[in-house]
């Protein structure tokens, strides 16, 4: 009896852990440190020293903020998920809704505090702005044009959060080409969010086409940055090569979604576009140095690996 009870408790613990991993979208969490690294790369491109400990702390803060956002997303969407996604942790009863709400708020606050402790007031300000945008998206703006832009803006702010890792108060202001990069990423994610709005039910081809347009805009953004900055041949090759990989990876998922827009094609396309952001970040980061691009791409390993076990949406 004791052995069977112990096994049951162990299985229950594993089930709870899996439920919380699904709640925070654990594969997606590994798409956020690349944003931070890209921000650090943009600062490094100005000749400013980047604090590696600060960069690491900001990466943790970014993951906490993202986890808070997905948790609050499910908190606010509990009634909708009960109809459309009953397998999710809250409607399935594996995690109480009130617990999810408290956890989401705690994660957002924790992310702001970690950012503040890691890189000072400027980082805390960026993190607080990011947490505010996340909360507004989850609670008020979701499903509207303002909501799509809010989600995109959250990713852009995540990149700017990484710029706070500049090691001195005399950090040089970012040039115009560098400031355009978070904007390009924001527009790409806004387009993907538009496609994802009804991924569990019915999606119009126009929404998939919008995501494809976001992909092309991002590709043009990388090419424009290459032309503007004139990096070395090696950096150019990395940036262009990763951009090609990004285009092929997203295109292979968006093609079937456009041809037959239904949950079993659109859902995977959304997941692919989220994970492919890591490659896009790497392409932009390559402009500052190959080492930055490689550091970004490392996060593809856990992101893709965990996506085989947990939903990416």
From TrEMBL:
InterPro entries: Prenyltransferase_related, UbiA_prenyltransferase, UbiA_sf
Parts of the chain that traverse the membrane: 36-66, 100-119, 176-196, 208-227, 233-254, 266-286, 292-310
One GO cellular component, as annotated: plasma membrane
Membrane topology recorded in Swiss-Prot or TrEMBL: Multi-pass membrane protein
GO MF, one annotated term: transferase activity, transferring alkyl or aryl (other than methyl) groups
Transmembrane in keyword set: yes
Subcellular location: Cell membrane
Short name of any one Pfam family annotated for the protein: UbiA
Domain of life: Archaea
Keyword entries, A-Z: Membrane, Transferase, Transmembrane, Transmembrane helix
Protein name, entry field: UbiA prenyltransferase
Gene source species: Halococcus morrhuae DSM 1307
């Amino acid at each position: 009896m004791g052995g069977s009870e112990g096994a049951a408790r162990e299985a229950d613990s594993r089930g709870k852990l899996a439920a919380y991993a699904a709640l925070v979208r654990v594969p997606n969490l590994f798409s956020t440190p690349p944003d931070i690294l890209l921000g650090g790369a943009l600062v490094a491109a100005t000749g400013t020293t980047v604090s590696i400990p600060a960069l690491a702390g900001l990466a943790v803060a970014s993951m906490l903020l993202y986890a808070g956002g997905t948790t609050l997303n499910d908190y606010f969407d509990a009634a909708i998920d009960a109809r459309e996604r009953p397998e999710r942790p809250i409607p399935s009863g594996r995690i109480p809704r009130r617990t999810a709400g408290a956890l989401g708020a705690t994660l957002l606050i924790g992310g702001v505090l970690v950012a503040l402790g890691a890189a000072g007031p400027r980082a805390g300000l960026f993190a607080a702005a990011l947490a505010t945008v996340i909360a507004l998206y989850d609670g008020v703006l979701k499903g509207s044009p303002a909501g799509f832009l809010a989600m995109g803006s959250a990713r852009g702010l995540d990149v700017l959060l990484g710029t706070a890792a500049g090691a001195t108060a005399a950090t040089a202001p970012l040039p115009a080409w560098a400031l355009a990069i978070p904007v390009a990423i924001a527009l790409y994610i806004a387009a993907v969010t538009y496609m994802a709005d009804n991924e569990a039910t019915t999606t119009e081809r126009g929404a998939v086409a919008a995501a494809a347009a976001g992909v092309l805009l991002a590709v043009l953004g990388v090419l424009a940055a290459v032309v503007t900055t004139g990096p070395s041949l090696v950096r150019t090759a990395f940036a262009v090569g990763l951009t090609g990989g990004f285009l092929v990876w997203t295109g292979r998922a968006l093609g079937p979604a456009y041809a037959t827009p239904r949950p079993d094609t659109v859902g995977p396309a959304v997941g692919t576009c989220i994970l492919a952001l890591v490659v896009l970040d790497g392409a932009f980061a390559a402009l500052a140095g190959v080492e930055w691009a490689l550091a970004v791409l490392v996060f593809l390993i856990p992101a893709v690996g965990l996506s085989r076990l947990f939903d990416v949406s």
